[in-house]
Amino acid sequence: MSDGPLAPGSTIGILGGGQLGRMLATAGAALGFDVHVFEPEPDCPASRVAARAYCAPWDDAGAVEAFAARCDAVTYEFENVPLDTVAVAARVSQVRPGARSLELTQDRLTEKRFINQAGVATVPFADVTDRDDLGAAIARIGLPAVLKTRRFGYDGKGQAWIRQTGDAGAAWTAIGGKPAILEGAADFRRELSVVAARSVDGEVKAWPLSENVHGDGILERTTAPAPGVDAATQARALEIARAIGGGLGHVGVFAVELFDLGPDGLVVNEIAPRVHNTGHWTMDACGCGQFEQHMRAVAGWPLGDPSPHSACVMTNLIGKDALNWEQIAGDPAARLHLYGKRAVRAGRKMGHVNRLSPL
Length: 359
Known about the structure:
alpha+beta
């Protein structure tokens, strides 16, 4: 394992082969790296752009070790890679970000406690281990509130709103009766996110705040830079990113989802220890996009310049939206990115489109 920056021609491995892995692999190749992908699902999107793909279960320690041993550094595309898998890879290669970033973000309760310990505000929350805890949590947090599974929830999955006391039983059933966290509702003006990168040396660079609109728990649209953000708010977002990135000892790109409370400032909703959907706009609107930046950090290279040269509206192509690819491809203002997924399904992210305009 080398302590210095990786030279072009080195191999970077990615645990996970979805769309984020695909875009990371493409960015790594552009920097001169060979990118290998490990993914349990065959014919994954990243496998068709990587130099080499490995298909085996996460718990196949021999396969994971063989994959990592061929890599000069290993990273991951999403936060639900099992910690045991990362531990196996770390025995034979350097893993960036490290296991701590996964450990503290795979569990929503652990994540919220970490954020508060870093000196950053969140919405009020309570641990809900079983159904009997839920009533006490409601009494403490108040209603409305959202009940979320502690682990494996994303894109609106594993959560249910409780707007009155009588909703509690149905909400507990809706999340599968799993250990959960109850979060108080935030009286926010809008949802923002800061996407940042932290280098091996601890330098943090962030892109401008973006404004995000969700539907049915899935991101629909990101506008960046977010309109109406003053210098103080942008500076506070960078402070939050530095506190969280430093507390994790993170190397690579990460995202912090925020609620904008207006005069009451920013509170953190959640952390993603990886490249993020709300950072897709950076691919076309900035000097250095999030995927290139992540691969730079993993390789130990200097971070690139995140400054935008254009404003951007990023729109996710969800399900059948992607079937309009020909029309989008004919739009001179559009930058189309499709993920190579074989089957179109409702609620599935199939691609995104960036539409640029002058700053």
